[in-house]
Specification:
This protein is of the alpha/beta class. It is 51% helix and 16% strand. It is built from 18 helices and 13 strands. β11 (281-286), α13 (290-297) and β12 (302-306) form a beta-alpha-beta unit. α1 crosses α18 and α10 packs parallel to α11 (255-262). It is globular, with a radius of gyration of 22 Å.
Length: 399
């Protein structure tokens, strides 16, 4: 069958690539055409557009690029109509994808499947009306979404398990590197890159095998990094006499961008090694997003940090506009506060520093958080999200 898949950012590219491989196992003749990234390209098929040409986040960037966004949307609709797939599979990215769903529903007699629901349970709940009208099947990866969709809105969905849990479990089973070997490999890689590029590796702070790691995961977008990383570094510095501070660089963000924040500071940076880094970290400061769940699944105690503009206004909106009590996936899945969330008016240097101290080895909040992580694992349930979704999709599509 012919599958048209749309993913608009890096996480969607990752999850969609696993779904494509699972679909190939269910349907040996699967033919893919997609908006996505390098991981989806590696899985096979034809890429129409890279997600980097789509991913505009925030009011001002979207406003500045409206013409490009509308042009990409029109191109996508024309391409779907020309190719005539058996199904359109949307992966998160609701601003773009819900428009595509409406077009397909109005103009074509093919089903629309949604893999990884938009977060309408947090904001823009009115979008349930569009989903109910335009989406044939929803494939959820968060267990609490079942109650939201089915009990609150009477819309039946398929909970298939969580792909991040699958990815972390697979990595942990196969990763055998000791901390000493990890340090040696990363330091050697930095030196090799410096030799190839004719630059000095001495400007890059090496890792040390005799000091435990505080990991910094400061987001995947430039604005997030700019807002969060400086105070994360300052807070971690309070413990720099005993720990080394290591930043996990996000894909698509250049070393030059990170350099403005870490230059001259006791902060090491690793690229493309987030899971390996979390395997060895003793604690982490993490921005909200999938990274909070990844950190929990690696059993690394964490503090969730998310700086916002006009914090007092945002704090008010959070209390009175957002439909959920928490912003981190860890707490949302658990249904209670497993990890501290320092957001808006609670995002202060003193709060970050104090909360980090409580979860470092010997801290009084560490053991309780680890127990909370077990609760999260239990609630995630089913393993094999991509496989479960692919099996249901193919079964529903076949006559």
């Amino acid at each position: 069958m012919k599958y048209y898949i749309i993913a608009g950012e890096a996480s969607g590219d990752l999850h969609a690539s696993h779904l494509m491989k699972a679909l190939q196992r269910e349907d040996a003749d699967a033919d893919f055409r997609f908006f996505g990234g390098d991981m989806m390209s590696a899985a096979g098929g034809t890429r129409v557009k890279h997600y980097r040409e789509l991913a505009y986040m925030g009011f001002v960037p979207v406003l500045l690029h409206l013409r490009t966004i509308f042009r990409n949307m029109a191109m996508c609709k024309d391409d779907i109509a020309t190719w005539q797939p058996d199904v359109v599979i949307l992966v998160d990215y609701p601003g773009f994808n819900l428009s595509i769903a409406r077009f397909v529903k109005d103009h074509m007699d093919i089903p629309v499947y949604y893999y990884i629901s938009p977060k309408i349970w947090a904001w823009k709940e009115y979008r349930i009306k569009n989903i109910r009208r335009d989406v044939s099947e929803m494939f959820s990866i968060l267990p609490f979404e079942v109650d939201f969709y089915e009990n609150k809105h009477g819309y039946k969905i398929n909970y298939v398990g969580n792909p991040t849990a699958d990815e972390v479990a697979q990595f942990r089973m196969s990763y055998k590197e000791t901390f000493g070997d990890f340090v040696k490999r990363i330091n050697g890689s930095v030196a090799d890159d410096a030799d190839k590029n004719g630059t000095k590796s001495s400007s890059v702070l090496p890792l040390h095998s005799d000091r435990p790691v505080i990991a910094l995961l400061a987001g995947s977008r430039r604005q997030e990094i700019k807002d969060n990383l400086p105070d994360m570094i300052k807070a971690a510095y309070a413990y720099a006499d005993r720990y080394q501070i290591v930043l996990a660089a996000a894909p698509g963000i250049s070393p030059e961008y990170y350099r403005r924040f870490v230059y001259g500071k006791k902060v090491s940076v690793v690229y493309g090694e987030t899971y390996a880094l979390l395997s060895h970290a003793v604690a982490a400061l993490v921005t909200s997003g999938t990274a909070t769940l990844e950190t929990a699944l690696f059993d690394v105690p964490q503090v969730v940090c998310y700086e916002t503009p006009i914090p007092k206004v945002i704090a008010f909106l959070r209390r009175h506009v957002l439909k959920v009590k928490y912003i981190s996936l860890v707490n949302l899945i658990a249904g209670n506060e497993v990890v501290p969330e320092l957001v808006a008016d609670t995002f202060t240097l003193d709060n970050i520093r104090h909360s980090l101290g409580k979860i470092l080895p010997g801290g009084d909040g560490r053991e309780e958080m680890m127990c909370g992580y077990e609760q999260v694992r239990e609630k995630l349930g089913n393993a094999g999200a991509a496989e479960n979704a692919a099996r249901i999709m193919v079964a529903k599509l076949r006559p």
